[in-house]
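Protocol step 6 of 9: fold each sequence in the batch and record its structure tokens directly after the sequence line. For illustration, a two-sequence batch is reproduced in full.

Sequence one:
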Amino acid sequence: MHHYPAEPYKIKVVEPIAVTTREQRVQYLAEAGNNTFLLRSDQCYIDLLTDSGTTAMSDYQWAGMMMGDEAYAGSRNFIHLQETVRKYYGFRHIIPTHQGRGAENLLSRICIKPGDYVPGNMYFTTTRAHQELNGATFVDIIIDEAHDSQIDLPFKGNVDIQKLQRLIDEVGAERIPYVCVAVTVNLAGGQPVSMENLREVKKLCSAHGIKVMFDATRCVENTYFIKEREAAYHDRSIADILLEMMGYADGCTMSGKKDCLVNIGGFLCMNDDDLYQRAAELVVLFEGMPSYGGLAGRDMEAMARGIEESVDYHYIHHRISQCRYLADALAAAGIPIVRPVGGHAVFLDARAFLDHLPQDEFPAQTLAAQLYLESGVRSMERGIVSAGRDARTGDHHRPKLELVRLTIPRRVYTYAHLDVVAQACIDLYQRRHEIKGMKMVYEPKLLRFFTSRFESLD
């Protein structure tokens, strides 16, 4: 029998959660247009929509919140955050932002010219949107195996070096402002990138004068997988591996709402002095002063302390183990999931789960809606709806992966909660062929998965 570690924390504050009836959930879902993003939190029993900003902060972080220095410039909390980022991530310059997409906006505006290409190891929704809005074309350079949910590889998020080299040869290095490497890769199922692969990417990019910028949102989770799966790192600490890993980048965007263990905040990092000066000028327009960037001093203090806590092995080991616990329960029941299990979520393979539905009937969106109806568990679509439309043809992007993400918030739920989630998925799977698809009845132009509305074809 596999051993799952107990929670490395004890509970001192509790928050009641909603217990609803199926009749209530039918009404709530109809009002939300069958989009789980449009449900209210108090209508959800176990909320696995996202791990972004849903962390339970520690007593150490809450104590830091009481030490907020709300000076307009030069806050001591910013100095603490700057020192902490330099210590654990190694970058010289940091610009706080209100969250990760604020950093994506700054990076895209500073670096991208119309006609540029930005290669990355699979797209992420807001990242690609910022790149395209500033005139770039996103090019997927992840290994092919990442697009197959059933292939089990230790580092399924790796960059395909040959794909990157071909793009450089085709368009020229001068038209590639940077390579965007996500560590881990969210839309592939939270898949990590190996240290060996990061070294290869950095070596190739350095030879052509191309910057490497990490999407470092879940970098600690990536570090855990390197420690576990690359022999040379078994005996290294999480902090040591993280520092080396970041050394293969020229900078990063960070949503602190994930691996920095806070409810709000992010930052943009870089080593280049000129890039920093340009970012420091632009952040004043969109966020605030370079020493707070849209954050209160107390939020920066909580983030600095969260970074310290995030590199504790017992914390990250338990986090990964919770994902594996849920995945093992689902796999034992024959439910199709993305393999191997990633670091922040378990991804249901909606294409295989609802194999009678064509992709144009939105199987992942349908499955997320049905899971809520079944149990009150809120999840997220990660398939054709999230992929959006091709700006040139107007047709849907049709990703090979059609997924529902069961995202586990940090330090929030217990194994007992995950048992409820597993049983709900199992019950739904047993009557899966009764489920009808959906049609989209409202679609915004950008990031449609947030606010689109759907109707059942039943």
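Sequence two, same batch, same settings:
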Amino acid sequence: MAKNYLQAGEFVTVLAPAALASGDPVLVGAIFGVVQFDADSGDEVELARRGIFDLPKTTGQAWTAGVKVYWDATNSLVTTTASGNTLIGAATAARVAGDTTGTVLLDGTIR
């Protein structure tokens, strides 16, 4: 292993941009992840950048498995609308328009 290797990057520690609770999805700059423990604004917090999570979704949208999903930072929801939003992964299961959560595969890619 290279002498400058630090970690795998599945989890990353950042400063919380606001008060966050375990399980909250958050975008910090270009890094999207799911909060692993509660943190106050400005505290260090660990984000999971990869994995499959149930996340809050935009109602009124039906999802199919494999559809690309994006983070709508304005509304703090996952959406299938690309314009103005950040690509975070893909849905792993179909959801009907009325569902408030969706199952999302985060691949950890910075976009």
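Proceed to step 7 once all outputs are recorded. Observation for sequence two: The chain has no helices and nine strands.
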